[in-house]
Design a protein that fits this description.
555 residues; alpha/beta; 7-stranded mixed sheet; globular
Length: 555
């Protein structure tokens, strides 16, 4: 029986998370609505005040090997954050973390789970603070920053803890082994099974979803007994800095070295990620970002188990529909949400050259393509709603890409700048929709609010292109609209064969670029876009090993 007070405090929540992951039914530990009834009457104001208290100051973390400062975050809403962070001496930091991890790795599973659950609980209580930090580093709209950067990210972290906890508990701590030998005395052994962590985990954050994409790896490595070095993207440090600060406080209070979780911040002029990734002590790496760097990690960090989520080209196939308006509305929101800066946002929309059948009769290719463009334009016609949903463009590279493709001669819907009250310099743009000229124009991922309408021979041709695209270029989402059960069955076969999750006929409040923790797997690990899924058993089981001790009992 556990003697960990933190485990006892959070045991019920953990058990519910385990049960939810088994049933795949809806459940959440952390409410997604920013309601004063849930988070407190002053939570929003307190969170904004806390965020502003970081601006134009040094973020203090008492970590080993720190010397000097680094930091140059800019809000996509038009101002510099002015926050500096301790600059780490990588060799000294890694040495300290290697020492700190030993006692953490020897702690029992329940104790580690309790600490992880307490960290998540404290993060949740500061969800508004995280919302503002995520909003002003990533450009997400406030509601999305609260949900995706807060409770949804926390759920994904908890999901990883639940999977890892159940996986580690599958093997008993001890066993009494008796093998009958007929007339002779039985063979008797006592056995002990010890969960042994791999070493140091390195979590490499991304600029668009610093918490959502980092928490699974962070908590999966931590609960399995590994120390974790968190390396944020230089453009989105603050949300992960706050996370590390909370984790270090909980670890210290629980009697462990706070250096079990540390932060390493760099900038584009002096990157340290490669140096960290090749350290012999680093045995686990979690990365979200470009295919180029993800491939480099897989090819070069041979001493580590590497989990990557990289670029992909997500697709939509339109075959037919019995709810044309609902389909267009769903696609319009999907393309608009966070200006397409999601790894699950569709880029290529395949429509048969002969058009599609709908409840209102047959519609030509041009009519369907025009309806999509008009739907996106209408959805974003109200500046207040548009700015809330679109958020702001996070990086200069995304902005340059949008401007480049908007200058072409195949534009169906041009982007426009959207003003936002209180943020006159916000970088907000509506989606760009293009008609594909040829196959080469849409094969590669064009991250951001850029999508192609692609004319195909028929739906069979559309599905064949999707299958080839996923196998060769990767994808995390795939959506299809069809009134035919046979076509849907073919689409499911394509999805299973190419290794991508598929959504059928979404016309309501669920969108192809959204996934729910405990029910939806994010990515599959079965195509080039990612080599792991968030979360499944494979995502946690390689983060530790079970070492056996056995002996003949005395007496």
């Amino acid at each position: 029986m556990s003697v960990s007070p933190l485990f006892e405090k959070h045991k019920e929540t953990l058990n519910k998370a385990i049960e939810a992951s088994r049933t795949r039914e809806y459940w959440t530990a952390y409410p997604e609505m920013p309601s004063p009834k849930v988070y407190g009457e002053t939570a929003n104001k307190d969170g904004e005040t806390a965020f502003k208290s970081y601006l134009n100051k040094a973020f203090e973390l008492d970590q080993p090997g720190s010397g000097g400062t680094v930091g140059a975050e800019k809000s996509p809403y038009g101002f510099d954050l002015g926050i500096t962070y301790p600059k780490a001496d990588v060799d000294k930091l890694v040495a300290a973390v290697e020492e700190a991890r030993k006692s953490w790795g020897k702690a029992d599973v329940d104790t580690r789970a309790g600490v992880c659950m307490e960290i998540l609980d404290r993060i949740n209580k500061r969800s508004f603070e995280f919302a503002y930090a995520v909003m002003h580093t990533t450009g997400q709209g406030f509601m999305m920053a609260f949900q995706a950067g807060g409770p949804h990210a926390q759920d994904r972290g908890l999901e990883a803890v639940a999977y890892a906890y159940e996986d580690m508990k599958r093997t008993p701590a001890t066993a009494h082994w008796v093998k009958p030998q007929g007339k002779n005395d039985p063979l008797v052994m006592d056995k002990k099974f010890t969960v042994v962590p791999r070493g140091i985990g390195l979590v490499i954050g991304c600029s668009t979803f610093p918490t959502w994409n980092s928490y699974p790896g962070l908590f999966a490595s931590l609960v399995t007994g590994n120390a974790v070095i968190v390396k944020p993207h230089p453009g989105a440090v603050l949300p992960l800095a706050i996370t590390v600060e909370i984790a270090r406080d909980v670890l210290k209070e629980a009697g462990f070295s706070p250096d079990v979780v540390t932060l390493v911040v760099d900038d584009a002029s002096a990157p340290v990620t490669k140096e960290l990734a090749l350290k012999e002590e680093v045995k686990l790496i979690d990365f979200t970002g470009s295919s180029a760097f993800g491939n480099w990690l897989e090819d070069n960090a041979k001493q580590a188990q590497v989990y990557t989520e990289k670029a992909g080209v997500n697709c939509i196939v339109i075959d037919s529909t019995d709810n044309f308006r609902g389909m267009i509305g769903n696609i319009a929101f999907t393309l608009s949400l966070y200006s397409g800066q999601m790894c699950t946002t569709p880029q290529n929309i395949f429509i048969p050259e002969g058009g599609i059948d709908t409840e209102d009769g047959h519609k030509s290719f041009d009519e369907v393509a025009g309806a999509i463009a008009k739907g996106v334009e209408k959805f974003n016609s109200d500046d207040q709603r548009a700015s809330a949903v679109l958020g702001a463009i996070q990086s200069d590279a995304t902005m340059s890409r949008l401007e480049k493709y908007a200058a072409g001669d195949n534009v169906l819907l041009a982007p426009r700048a959207v003003p936002m009250e209180g943020f006159e310099n916000a970088r907000i743009r509506t989606p760009l929709i293009l008609e594909a000229k040829d196959e080469s124009s849409y094969k590669e991922e064009l991250f951001g609010p850029i999508s192609f309408v692609v004319k195909t021979k028929d739906t069979a041709d559309s599905l064949a292109i999707v299958k080839d695209s996923v196998k060769n270029h990767g994808a995390i989402s795939f959506g299809i609209w069809s009134s035919s059960d046979d076509v849907l069955a073919q689409a499911e076969e394509v999805a299973c064969d190419s290794g991508v999750a598929v959504s059928f006929n979404l016309t309501g409040g669920v969108f192809v670029n959204q996934t729910a923790a405990f029910s939806d797997f994010h990515a599959t690990g079965a195509n080039p876009a990612a080599n792991a899924a968030l979360s499944d058993t494979a995502y946690v089981s390689n983060r530790y090993r079970v070492i056996q001790t056995r002996w003949h009992p005395k007496g």
